[in-house]
Input
Amino acid sequence: MRYLGKVYRPPSEAYSLIVQVTYGCSHNGCAFCDMYDDKHFAMRPMQEIREDFELARRVYRHVGRVFLADGDALMRPTRELVEILGLIYGLFPECERVTCYASPRSIQVKTPEELQLLRQRGLQMVYMGLESGCDAVLQKMNKGHTAEAIVAAGQKARQAGLKLSVTAISGLGSTEHLREHAIETARALSAMNPEYIGLLTLMVEPGTPLESWVREGSFTVLNAEQVLQETELFLHHIDSPGSVFRMNHASNYLTLKGTLNDDLPALIARVQEGLRGRGLRSEFMRAL
Ligand code: SF4
Output
């Protein structure tokens, strides 16, 4: 495959065929993020996309999953996404699912009928970043959307039949907004009731606005104990029956997995063990 710049995928797409159908992120402005700072958002030429899928067909005997990169593939016009989905399922009849990242904006600009059409043509799930349910945090981090708008986008995707996977970031509220960030993020996720919820933990990337705030002393990075206190508060407020909850990213101090709400007592007990120092990932082992 030919890739332009850094390529990211959710952990659950580790065994998927990844093809860029767009480049970069349509927002590219979050204060903590350097993922796509090496490129401007752009549509990849259809001819190149076709060539990559045809090459993959020649190289791989079995392609069960396809992930459409980069950061906001859903921003591509619907008729082109329909064409891409047709190409995928034509070339790979064995393919069981196609997924992509979506931004609140790319969901907003699509009509419910367009989202339903994409679902019918085989787009099964979109991954969307909430980051925080607290507007003060979203504003500080320049997410470009209020929590209400992100929740509405998530609900719209689900109403169209798309599965939804949503991530939030522990520690994004610093000490100043620790409590609101935990509680309001739990509320926003509960309102979307997505199939999957992922909690990452904030890491400070070089060259980002966040890094300069940390250097200047205007943003305090939470330590492991504070992150776990925030997580415990979050778990006491989340109410999202059936959602698969994962906190198993390399950035997390503690690994947690379970199904909400049934596993909440066990998840909270595990966090409390972590607060007593058991089973924590050491700082130097953390990564994005
Ligand atoms: S966090 Fe997501 S939306 Fe924000 S700049 Fe990074 S990729 Fe784009």
In short: The pocket of iron/sulfur cluster is lined by residues 25, 27-30, 33, 35-36, 71, 103, 129 (CB under 6 Å). The CA atoms of residues 62 and 94 lie 7 Å apart.
